[in-house]
Design brief:
Length: about 140
């Protein structure tokens, strides 16, 4: 029996948004991107008494999270031409457009995590002693 895949294959999923807009997002993050996400916008402050206060800038975190997950889009400017995808372009979005994109990216992340958890559960069930003894009994 081989071990499960240990690597992330870079793939994207298209999220359809309102008014014909779409954004392509990473299907899942690799370890490098995940570690970046773990520290984005985190600015802990050490107080004189030695305690640490979490000073996370959640607004910046949402912008950086969106930038981390989105790989491209078809968003247009006033002139009707598509604007290249970039962090600066995300920061310049209309707040309503950003909120829709951010909410869809967040839903995608939650669905991705749920699917990963489901796959892990299936693998654990396949490795359980009951499953192994059942497989051994059927192979004889």
């Amino acid at each position: 029996m081989s071990t499960p895949n240990s690597f992330i294959t870079p793939t994207t999923t298209r999220l359809n948004l309102s008014n014909g807009r779409w954004a392509d997002v990473k299907t899942e993050l690799d370890v490098a991107d995940q570690r970046k996400m773990d520290v984005l916008a985190m600015h802990p402050v050490r107080l004189p008494d030695g305690s640490v206060v979490d000073r996370t800038d959640w607004g910046l975190y949402e912008i950086l999270r969106t930038h981390m997950w989105v790989t491209g889009w078809n968003f247009c400017g006033e002139d009707g031409h598509e604007r290249p995808y970039s962090l600066d372009a995300i920061k310049a979005l209309d707040p309503d457009v950003f909120n829709e994109l951010n909410n869809r990216v967040f839903d995608h992340i939650m669905n991705s995590l749920a699917e990963k958890k489901r796959r892990r559960s299936v693998r654990q069930q396949e490795k359980s002693p009951e499953a192994e003894s059942s497989a051994a009994a059927t192979s004889t």
